Amino acid sequence: MRSSRLLPATVAALLLAAPLFAQTGDAPPVDAATLLKELHGIRDKQSATSKQTRTTALQQINAAASSPERALAVWEEAVRAVQFDGQAKEGAAFRDWKEKEGEALSAPLGRNAVRLFFVYLGITIQRDAGATVKELLPQLLSYTRELAGDEAAAEALEDAIKREAGGAPSGKRPGQQPQRKATDDQVRKAHDQVLKRGLGNSPVVQWMKLGDFVNPEKWEKQPGAFDGIYTQMILPELREQKDARVLEYWDYRLKRDGEAAVKSKLAFEIEKFNTQRRPALLWNRAQDLLAIGQKNRAIGEMAAVIRGNPTSPELPAWITALEAVLLPPLPPSAADATALPGSEQAAPPVVK
Questions:
Q1: Is 224 helix (H, G, I), strand (E, B) or coil?
Q2: Nearest C-alpha neighbor of 131 from the set 26, 219, 244, 57
Q3: C-alpha of 167 from chain center
Q4: Phi/psi class of residue 219: alpha, beta or left (left: φ > 0; alpha: ψ in -120 to 50)?
Q5: SS3 label, residue 349
Q6: What percent of the chain is predicted at pLDDT more than 70?
Q7: What is the model's pTM?
């Protein structure tokens, strides 16, 4: 009986659908001009909305970057919204986070990491909006100087952690109460979680829905990646401008890597730096001298690397590269001849 009662409804549905199956021919012509106008309007509205969203977000981000306290407040709100909103016992879970990770971020190193995050996020959004690396170069250089200071502070904290782990005195008086609940190890981990992950994975970008604005091409996505920011963005721009500040990066790397090797107190690490890392960094420095037009200085430094490291496995490649700089380019007729089939003479590289 039930199936018979459902039959009329089924028949009615099929009858309603019948015209759809019967229409095998094309539809009437569309008004192309009207439809195009509508599409353009939709696109323009979407573009204006996106631009306004970006502008508003950038204002909020710059405000957060103005002080460690403001940065931390916005970060905590983003964490609450992304990680705890809608959870059972949301308030209790968020309070537990604040007593642990939040307390670690409240330390000077943690607060500064959050502020640096917002500074870099703001620069990234400007780049995505169309600002050139040349226009952003002063901000990037200022940011990396601050980031270098942050790295030094993080390394100092790491050294303190190792001393305490080894039983060295922490410098606190007997019975002295700690000023904060978070340990140095927790502070370092919280710091790294802010600066050493991609912008798109941060709670702030997820909360503010900025995922479409943090992926410009040829751009370092990790705010704490000092070397990546230099090699992907700053160095290419400085080379393009023939700017001698390109050398500052290699001088910093020589100092930083050398100090790290000495700090390790391991003969292997010190030897590795002296025989591998240092020559490679000096060679890269010489290549950038060449790139910014200081050819004679470049030749001198390239020759010094070769003379100082006669047993390096890189020696053949280094000599070949220096020979290419020293040998004059072939005249056009000779260069054309070397390209003919059967030619036995190879044209040396031409350094411009």
A1: coil
A2: 219
A3: 37
A4: beta
A5: coil
A6: 82
A7: 0.78
